[in-house]
Amino acid sequence: MASKSSPGEHNKEKGDEKTSEASVSSSSQSISVSTLADQVSSTLSFAQSCGSKSSGEVKLNELSDLAETGKRNTYRPSTSSDISDESTCSGLSTNKPHKANDVRWEAIQVVRAKHGSLGLNHFRLLKRVGGGDIGTVHLAELHGTRCYFAMKVMDKGALASRKKLLRVQTEREILQSLDHPFLPTLYSHFETEKFSCLVMEFCPGGDLHTLRQRQPGKRFLEQAAKFYVAEVLLAMEYLHMLGIVYRDLKPENVLVRDDGHVMLTDFDLSLRCTVSPTVVRSTTLVSEALQRSSGNNCAQPACIQQPSCMSAPTTCFSPRFFSSKSKKDKKDKKPKTETGNQVTPLPELIAEPTTARSMSFVGTHEYLAPEIIKGEGHGSAVDWWTFGIFLYELLFGKTPFKGSGNRATLFNVVGQPLRFPESPVVSFAARDLIRSLLVKEPQHRLAYKRGATEIKQHPFFEGVNWALVRCASPPEIPKPVEFESAPPTPAPATSTSVKADQSSYLDFDFF
């Protein structure tokens, strides 16, 4: 869900699923996934207090383990009625602490208390702000409140004829489970006889693709790119902790809020699976880090110019767990000969859905991972491939494997090595992070085992205070939007039908 782009420069299309999803279930753990995700989310709270938290149980529909049989998985049927579904929305304001004090919640609750339920007749559609593969997005005002939302309207009949209703249900149920500063808030959802509607927050800053086009050289400076990818990384970490593989990261799907921070959108291609959080001892982490350091992962200039330094026991990828003992205490004791003894044994939480498997062909051509193109089956590692492409595009203003057409692009992704342009000049750490993410074999890709934790520890993010990212100053603040000057759009019955042509795909401007 993102911005329009010119066919010549940024021709990106979304593929349709070939086969259904399959996930490999892991043994249950004593750690609650919802609790872990809530803990990560709570560290990124808004500056103001959001009150007490009522976490509730995160509801993710379970997929049958059909990886071997190849049969189509079916999700739990929707319990929503044909007119309205408020059962799961009535308590969202208390279950989503990051939006607990949002005036839009209060406005919706007032209307719901007065009328009993929320429907299309309670909104005034001001203008259409985007269109996509499964619906259109409108800027909408809740009558009499001066509260504005992004309403995604989907034609159920058109989607049924294209066999895409499951994607609508997938996106709605994922949105219901989210509570994170860098992910969308689903304020309400309801259905009419013809339409299915999602009411979410409106992002007046557009998307990162449009914002990039306005930058000098159509690229971001490295510090600005670091800001945006850091927030996207936290959003993807949260999704993976919930067992959600995103699969559609690109600048068009990263929207800019009114405060300059970003929000990840568009979940109709996401894969839901099981995840088993585990606690890993630091001795294991040190061993893995030292093994990785023997590869081409060091970001320092000396390491890049002199391969012999790769075997050094202390590298830029060693975990940053240092002893808290003073220098005086160290002088009194004999030096340790083993590297592992110099590291404080701190455990680390890993919640990466490494067992997720799918055979679907979904995504955007320039962002597709090699394993998707080759049809070998893919898992959560595809998100880290797209993260590398995403960072590359923000820094260089283009994707690394773009060809003359879609076929040439796919060939380049699978068969061509990664190359960096001579200009602009970016840091060694940035190039090294991209190189580590764009490894064609997923099992050797950075973050394959430990997820976002590995990426956070990379030198590119040195100095980033992850718990306070939400309080950082954005590179750019969007200009205020004049809502009242927007002319009203026609009724949805004539303006929001979804085209049946699957070959044409337009991304959303705002969402």
UniProtKB/TrEMBL annotation:
<keyword id="KW-0067">ATP-binding</keyword>
<dbReference type="InterPro" id="IPR000719">
    <property type="entry name" value="Prot_kinase_dom"/>
</dbReference>
<keyword id="KW-0418">Kinase</keyword>
<feature type="region of interest" description="Disordered">
    <location>
        <begin position="1"/>
        <end position="32"/>
    </location>
</feature>
<protein>
    <recommendedName>
        <fullName>non-specific serine/threonine protein kinase</fullName>
        <ecNumber>2.7.11.1</ecNumber>
    </recommendedName>
</protein>
<feature type="domain" description="Protein kinase">
    <location>
        <begin position="123"/>
        <end position="461"/>
    </location>
</feature>
<keyword id="KW-0723">Serine/threonine-protein kinase</keyword>
<feature type="compositionally biased region" description="Basic residues">
    <location>
        <begin position="325"/>
        <end position="334"/>
    </location>
</feature>
<keyword id="KW-0808">Transferase</keyword>
<keyword id="KW-0547">Nucleotide-binding</keyword>
<feature type="region of interest" description="Disordered">
    <location>
        <begin position="324"/>
        <end position="344"/>
    </location>
</feature>
<feature type="compositionally biased region" description="Basic and acidic residues">
    <location>
        <begin position="7"/>
        <end position="20"/>
    </location>
</feature>
<feature type="compositionally biased region" description="Low complexity">
    <location>
        <begin position="21"/>
        <end position="32"/>
    </location>
</feature>
<dbReference type="Pfam" id="PF00069">
    <property type="entry name" value="Pkinase"/>
</dbReference>
<dbReference type="GO" id="GO:0004674">
    <property type="term" value="F:protein serine/threonine kinase activity"/>
</dbReference>
<feature type="compositionally biased region" description="Polar residues">
    <location>
        <begin position="75"/>
        <end position="95"/>
    </location>
</feature>
<comment type="similarity">
    <text>Belongs to the protein kinase superfamily. AGC Ser/Thr protein kinase family.</text>
</comment>
<feature type="region of interest" description="Disordered">
    <location>
        <begin position="69"/>
        <end position="95"/>
    </location>
</feature>
<dbReference type="InterPro" id="IPR008271">
    <property type="entry name" value="Ser/Thr_kinase_AS"/>
</dbReference>
<dbReference type="GO" id="GO:0005524">
    <property type="term" value="F:ATP binding"/>
</dbReference>
<dbReference type="InterPro" id="IPR011009">
    <property type="entry name" value="Kinase-like_dom_sf"/>
</dbReference>
